[in-house]
Design brief:
Protein name: DJ-1/PfpI family protein
Pfam family, one: DJ-1_PfpI
Structural class: alpha/beta
CATH topology of the largest domain: Rossmann fold
Largest sheet: 8 strands, mixed
Helix content: 25-40%
InterPro entries: Class_I_gatase-like, DJ-1/PfpI, INH-QAR
Number of helices: 8
Organism: Pedobacter nutrimenti
Shape: globular
CATH superfamily of the largest domain: Class I glutamine amidotransferase (GATase) domain
Strand content: 15-25%
CATH class of the largest domain: Alpha Beta
Keywords: Signal
Order of helices and strands: HEEEEHEEEEEHHEHEHEEEHHE
């Protein structure tokens, strides 16, 4: 009886202590400085604009972080990969860069890039991404194409920007699909893959496992579409707003799966 009385006296205090614990809200991981911020009420992050999460919900086992392999080469177009990299970074994806050798390469003759890995030691990734520019460097390299093919069973999705589609074509990944590329390369890509249907005047084409985009800035649209597929349209729209990219119009893409 005495123990019961003590428990009854203490229990309201426990409830009160729990009730007084302040709520804490945090920003979803977006690789920005706001990843370390916390807030005392629900809403949106004042830095990146994404919807805040209640911290107690983040104590549960973390969901798998999407990984993306960016294959780069000498002469790759800057915006082709930099635009999507910005999008995927805000989405909280883990992006890493790979080249044939782990040596500095020059993008578009102006930007030096040191890849994270070479094809000899690159880890597997959920998504494999390639980009335009001097794409023959990769497309005409049997060792690189063989390496891409060897990763297929571990790759969930493929993503190409601009003439990066020629690299996927050489790997035999675009046969019998509807695809797109840089507007000046439509005819050449059609010759490269006669079984495919190469379309113009479309920002991106989603075949389910493979997304190809038109040239340069269209890679941002394709990346936002991929984020919308994996994390929801609202997240993609908030990322576009954060980047002040008002050109994103989902209806300008084509979904054929």
């Amino acid at each position: 009886m005495k123990r019961l009385l003590i428990a009854l006296l203490l229990f309201p205090g426990v409830l009160l202590a729990r009730k007084q614990t302040p709520d804490v809200f945090i920003c979803p991981p977006c690789s920005g400085s706001c990843d370390t911020l916390s807030f005392d009420k629900a809403g949106t992050c004042s830095d990146c604009g994404m919807a805040l999460l209640h911290k107690t919900t983040t104590d549960a086992p973390k969901e798998h972080q999407t990984t993306i392999c960016f294959y780069l080469y000498e002469g790759v177009e800057v915006l082709d990969f930099a635009g999507p990299m910005e999008v995927f970074s805000y989405a909280g994806f883990k992006v890493f860069t790979v080249s044939k050798k782990k040596e500095a390469l020059t993008s578009q003759g102006i930007l030096k890039v040191l890849p994270d890995y070479s094809i000899a030691d690159a880890p597997q990734a959920d998504i494999f991404a390639v980009f335009g520019g001097n794409d023959d460097v990769a497309a005409d390299d049997p060792e690189v194409i063989s390496w891409i093919k060897s990763r297929d069973k571990f790759t969930n999705s493929y993503f190409s920007v601009c003439t990066g589609a020629f690299i996927l074509a050489k790997a035999g990944l675009l046969d019998h699909l509807q695809v797109t590329t840089f507007h000046r390369s439509i005819e050449n890509l059609q010759k490269e893959i006669p079984t495919a249907k190469v379309l113009k005047n479309v920002r991106y084409i989603d075949n389910g496992r493979i997304i190809t985009t038109a040239g340069i800035s269209a890679g941002i649209d394709g990346a936002l579409h991929l984020v919308a597929k994996l994390k929801g349209k609202e997240v993609a729209l908030k990322i576009a707003q954060q980047m002040e990219y008002d050109k994103y119009v989902p209806e300008q893409g084509l979904i054929v799966h």
